[in-house]
Amino acid sequence: MNDSLDADAVLWSHASAERDERPLLVLLHGYGADERDLFGLVPYLPPDFAVAALRAPLAPPFPAPGYSWYPIEGLESRDPRHVTAAARRVLEWTDAVATGHRPIGLLGFSQGAAVSLQAMRLAPERFAFAVNLSGYVTPGDVAGDAALAERRPPVFWGRGTNDDVIPAFLVEHSTEWLPGHVELSGRVYSGLTHSVSEQELADVRVFLDKRLEALAADG
CA 59, CA 56: separation in Å to the nearest integer? Predict the structure, then answer.
């Protein structure tokens, strides 16, 4: 099975000539979706970003549609190596395709959020911030955790009170782990299921606008 990312499947918000001078925001979709899923959020995101929506490399078992970053069937879903492998593929993509873009931010939903956070843990110097929508931090130690805790990049975490997809122990672990490693902000949305609401998108927009301001100030 070819588990590398398909560069031809990436959806871009800007033409090639308009990307290099813009900070890059990489979108990572959830289980059973594809690159078109989160690309629909582009109108809600600051236009100053060059947005790239990636397609996960794995095909879920029939009859599930779309693609996945790592398997969730059986005991395999409890193995953090799968999440780490997916995060390494994202790092490889940024090395091969996005070398002209600095800084880089990550925005993921569910599986994509878990992979985003894992990529940031593997290479804390690579990413300026992350947006975690209905995702979680993968349990277990990663070599870059100490460096991440020292850098403390901004992370937005949004989730719903009625999300019955992410297990409670992963929410609890993320709640305990994130404040010690990142500059955490976000909200728990009353009544929201495993999805994204307009209020959450408005909050994400505020977060991303602040990131642009900070990046401009850093010059």
Answer: 8
